[in-house]
Structure formats: C-alpha cells, structure tokens
Here is the input.
Amino acid sequence: MEGGYETYEEFRFIGREQEFKHLKEILMNAVLGLQSELKFKQSIRVMLLTGEPMIGKTRLSKEIKQQLVHDFHQSHYHLNAYLIELRRVTDFRTVLVKLSAALGLPPCSDNALIKHFKRLGRPCLVIFDSAEHLSVDTSNELQTQFLDFCTRLVNNSKVLLLINSRFKYRFLSMHANVYHHRLKPLDIQDSIDLLTSIAVNVDFTANTKETLADLCAGIPLALVIAATLLLDADSYCPKELVDLLEKNRLEAMSKNNYCKEQQVRHVIKSSVDRLRCILKNEYIKLSVIPSSFNADAVAHILELPDNNPALAKQNVLIPLAIRSLVARDVLCDRFEIHDFLREYLSDELSSLPKEQLLSLRNRYCVFYGKLLLAIAPVVEEESCKQLSLFSLEMINIQKMLEEAALSPSENYKLFIDIAYEAEYLIINFLPRKESIEFYAACVRTAESRGLSMKNQLGLMLSGYGQVLGHAQTNYKLADIQYERALECLSPFGDSVDLAWLFNHIGFSRYVNGKFDEALRETKTCTRLSQTSSRDTKEPVGEPPIDWKYL
Here is the structure.
C-alpha cells in the first residue's frame, strides 16, 4: 500500500476535530450503505477534499483512512483502504501502475482494475492524493482519462473515492452523489495548540504564541517548521523569530496585501537560512530529485564518501527531517520534499554554477539509469511482487529519461544499455512522451557515432519503432524504423539482435491484425535466437509479455 508524505506526520494530529468527525461519519455511512446494499446508487461515493497548498489535505485524509480501518476492524469487518500518490504524474498509465502496485497485482489496464474491484464485491476506499497534478496536461486528455476511470470505477463496483486536490473536479456521468468539502486554514487556537505541542519546553509568552501563529497563517506546514526551528538551541527564541517574520512582512508590503504564500515563504526562509552552509547547499541539490528518494540516491547524487547511505542519513537527511524540511516515511525508509518547499528551492537550484548543475544532473542520470537497469529484469520476471518497488521510483526514472533525451551523448553507453535491457518496462509503463523522446535521442546518438555504432544503431531503431507503434500507434513510421534497423543488423548475420528486431516486427503485425505475418516473423525470431550464441538478452520465441495486455 502506498504511503503519503507530510512533513509533520510524526506529530500528533491536532485541530479540525469537527471536520474530522463529520467527514469520517460520511464515509462510514457510505461504507455501511454499500455493505448492506441499501440505497446503493443514492449514497455518497466520491468525496472531494480541496484546499490551498500545505493546508493539510493529505494528513487529514490519512487520519480518516487509519481511523476508518481501525473502527471497522474493531467491529470485525475488514476495510481495504489504499492511498495513491499522484504528485508529478503526467501519464494515465502511471496512475494504473500505482494502483495495480497498491493492490499487489501485476500491471493492469483500467478495465482489468475495474473488474478486479467488481469481483471483490465488498466496499473499498481508494484515496487519490494530489490530483491537481493531473492538470499539467494542457490538452486535458489526462484529466479526462482520470475522471472517466473514476466514474466507471464507482458506477461498476463498491469503491469509495476520496480525491484530494487544490481545485474541484466535476463528474458529469457519475450515478452516485459527490460530496465536496473545502479545507480552510487552522483557526488561531488550533494553530497555537499545534505550535506548542511541538515546541515543548519553549518559553512562550501569550503574545508571542498568538503572533507567531498568526504569522504562520494557519498553515500546518509553516507552524511545524516554525516550531521545530524554535526547538533548535542554536536557533531563535520565540520573540526573535516573531521579530524576524514581522520585519520580513514590513519589507514585503503592507499587512493587508501580505498573502499567505509570502508568509509561509518567510517561515521557510528563516529555517533554511539557519542551516549550516554545507547542509543548505546539499538540501538545495536534493531538490533535483522530483519524487521521494532513499539514502542511497542521496549518497550518490551528493557524492558522499564511498557513496555511503549511512552518512547520507546521519549528516543530511536526519538533520533536515528534524527541522521538518524533508518528510520521512519510516515504513519504506524514504524521504520527500514538500511541493511548496521545492518551489522555494527551485530558484536556489537554478542559480547554482552551470558546472555544478551539469555534474549534478549527470550523477542523477547515472544513479537512476543504473537503478532502472537493476529493476527491469526483476519487474519483467515477477511484476506482481516487484511492481511496488518500481512504482515508488517511476517519477524519478521518468525524469532520468527526460534528462537523457536532452544530453544523451554524456552517458550514451549507459543509455543505450537502458534502451535495450529495459525496453519492456519503458515502453509498457513509463510515460509515452518521455519514452519516445528517449529512444529518438538514442537513435541520434548512435547515428552521430558513425560505422562504429552501426549494430547499436540497429538496436535503437528497433526499439524506436517499437515505442512508436506501442505508445503512439504510428505503425507506418514504426515500419520505417524497422526497415532501417534491418539494414543495420543484417550484415552481422544471424544474431540475437536480429531476432529481437523480428520479435518487434511480429508484434507490430499482430496488433494490426496481420496474424499470418506475425506468426511468420515470430518463427524467424525463434530460429534466429536458437542458432545464435551471443550471450545477451534472449528474445522469446512466443509473443512477448506485452502482447497479453492489449
């Protein structure tokens, strides 16, 4: 089951008692209604939880989920509940992979997932977190696919949906009721309670408590960062922090025009500025990783001695987690930087010297490229067991493909190995746009190397044709790549590489309904693979795995 990240998750949930009780009761009644099949179509089946960034949507959803599961367990009823993280998702297939992984299934299509929930025949709660990220697709195709899937899922199974987003979605074809609740900032008393529950043994005055709570604008993340900052003996006392934030507000603009975003930025800045120079620089560099990460990634990307993950934890991650500047998922032992903190760090990252940025991106690509090479055969062989590991790293691997497409020549040998060894994973599960651009860049790189790369060029053209056909259904352009690949690979005689190409051609014929041609090409693939002795990736003689998911 996927976890959701909040920087203040380790602290006790404070505030919103009435909202919590009200929302939990609505979902509880919805589950009971589905369980007894009373008013099945009239009950609330979708809850939209909206609000501005950092308002606490994820934390509230997780608290509701945990309490619902606990309450039903106490009454001897098991409620399955899943939280699916949608941050930085740009392709609908990523949603399906994440949901499949959470369910412990191999990668499933949308129809297969709906059938799975329908077969279960009992209520389940699915939480889609940070759904506003699906709006990055300017064509609205991603939003449309997501909303259509949610509608069909609710209309054809006993699934309850809780969707967190900055804005409200509209479901035009939903048979059941949709309940919308918008979260507001914490009131002043809840803000004070949250602040003082973390900053224990800090010498507050009544005035500093209230003023500091007001300066944090009722935003839980800002309150937690301020509280952890006060706990640091070498940092500020309450009055000093109040004076600093008041000064920032006066320098920005008048109080009436001082927006919440600026208030929170000043709280973050006050915390980041207190970091040691080395730690601050490392924190900025960590923001190059777009999604959650582990200590191994940090050690490699920051070039710590011996790439030691223990040092990464001790010297970088734990100090940042103590200050609530990174969130930690203890179960997965992974870390995450909140979106708003990333926005703050992005300017700092882009201002690094060009040489540092290039080196940083190069180390990023090498680490996640090698990780993809390690994951690919494992997921391909045991997708049901290993998909959850891949789903955690999907967004980071996606960025690696983007970076590789921009500068493929820097690590061309690694990228060509990835294009060959990880083809199944890239073509079937990673975003189409990035996959196509990655293979196109690999083709250009192989072309630029001349005759010395002719065999590799044939392989890249074969992979490029496959991704064009599978991801873009542009089979005419795919056939052109196959013809070019055949010209490159034929002079080398019978080989596994040539067999791989005929496997691709067979797949293309199969999906176009040319079954006789598909069978002929597959037999050629089988013959070539049996007569070839090259010790590399062996193409299978029967249709590859992705033929089964059409």
Remarks:
- The first strand starts at residue 44 and ends at 50.
